[in-house]
Amino acid sequence: MFELPILEVERFIRNAGAQRVTEAAGKKLTRLLECRAEKIIENAAMISRYAGRKTITREDIILALEFEN
After folding, report:
1. I want to staple 43 with a disulfide (CB 3.0 to 4.6 A). Which of 56, 58, 59, 64 is the partner?
2. Has residue 1 been placed in a domain?
3. Is 17 contained in some domain?
4. Does the residue 57 lie in any domain?
5. Whole-number mean pLDDT of the chain?
6. For residue 40, what are the domain limits?
């Protein structure tokens, strides 16, 4: 698994309009984003394998997002 930088996630929160962000909020959102990204990547990899490819494409990511919903 990969790790997103918590400070970058906190910056995203501030850019969305929050004036301040607690460390706990940054950590929680970071973990949620990591879990969601991991699932999307797993689905995109499955789609690319099904198509007989080893490379994940932009279209695989789009399909993986549709598959998730």
Report:
1. 64
2. no
3. yes
4. yes
5. 94
6. 6-68
The angle formed by the CA atoms of residues 68, 29 and 35, to the nearest 5 degrees, is 40
Q: How far is CA 62 from CA 16, 23, 27, 40, 69, in A?
A: 24, 31, 27, 9, 11
Whole-model pTM?
Answer: 0.82
- Give the pLDDT band (50/70/90) at residue 67: confident
Report the distance separating Cα 2 and Cα 12, nearest Å: 18
CATH number at residue 55: 1.10.20.10
CB 3 within 8 A of CB 26: no
Residue 66 and residue 69: Cα distance in Å, rounded?
A: 5
Structure tokens at 55: 């490379």
The C-alpha atoms of residue 2 and residue 40 are separated, in whole angstroms, by 13
Q: How far apart are the first and last CA of the chain?
A: 22
